[in-house]
Write a structure and sequence with these properties.
single chain, alpha/beta, six-stranded mixed β-sheet, 27% helix, 24% strand, globular
């Protein structure tokens, strides 16, 4: 499709691996490019697998005081000014927990409680970055409340073996995406993705389809990159992500997001 003439009007930005990386904050150059886009009237939409609670600090770091953000891979749409959800796409995690437990008996599950914290059946990677209330619960309790995002981590498994076994995972109400760097996955309501949520937002805002830009680096960005009129992958992204992008920009250390945005916004 490609961008029509002029600057993009709806800009979707992934967070981890795109705006920042572990131990590396958002750079001043990237922050300035985002601010310039907002000042020019573009809708800059942080679009992330993070929860609402862990997205708020990113919005603050970017100086985004109003507008929209999409969290939990598109399952949670928040009003930035209020910091609260305006739409949550939840599902019953019970069938997914049951099916995944059969495939991966040692799997550790974590279910997002929007705006509150996390219920988990054990300890997993990434807890040091969590914000909010963390409660250890059993499978029955975790499965008792709808959630927009269910994470599963297979402590002793490999990503390749997980993908092989996941070919047998089929829950009518659920979609899943696996992580890039370990044996974990995220389950959402079937059909919900970053791309799906961005299309709902595009229609709400009245932005033309050919005025959309997306920048990302992960497997959960694939639908978003397919959705955008112009899609950009970060250097170092998996091959399956690079194959979907119209172009590849520098990695976080090279201010890849700013390199793209500065074409239109300075």
């Amino acid at each position: 499709m490609g961008l029509a003439g002029g600057a993009p009007k709806l800009i979707a930005l992934d967070v981890d691996g795109t705006l920042l990386s572990k131990g590396v904050d958002i750079s001043a150059r990237v922050g300035a490019a985002v601010s310039a886009a907002v000042s020019a009237g573009a809708h800059v939409v942080v679009t992330t697998g993070r929860t609402l609670l862990t997205t708020r600090p990113v919005l603050s770091a970017l100086g985004l005081a109003e507008g929209h953000a999409l969290c939990s891979n598109g399952a949670v749409h928040i009003d930035v000014a209020r910091g609260e959800p305006v739409a949550v796409q939840s599902f019953d995690p019970g069938p997914a927990v049951l099916a995944l437990s059969a495939l991966f008996p040692a799997m550790v599950f974590a279910a997002e409680q929007v705006g509150v914290g996390t219920w988990a059946t054990g300890h997993g990677p990434g807890e040091e970055f969590s914000i909010g209330d963390f409660q250890l619960v059993d499978h029955r309790t975790l499965s008792s409340v709808p959630t927009p995002r269910l994470n599963g981590w297979w402590p002793d498994g490999s990503p390749d073996e997980m993908l092989r076994l996941l070919q047998e995972f089929d829950v009518p109400d659920a979609s899943w995406v696996h992580g890039e760097y370990g044996p974990w996955l995220t389950v959402s309501r079937r059909g919900v993705s970053k791309g799906w949520a961005l299309e709902q937002l595009r229609l709400l805002l009245g932005v033309e389809a050919d005025a959309t830009l997306a920048i990302g680096d992960g497997f959960n960005d694939r639908e978003m990159l397919r959705w955008a009129a112009h899609s950009v992958a970060m250097a170092g992204s998996p091959d399956a992500v690079l194959a979907l992008a119209d172009e590849v920009t520098g990695d976080v250390s090279e201010d890849g997001v700013a390199t793209v945005l500065e074409r239109w916004f300075v």
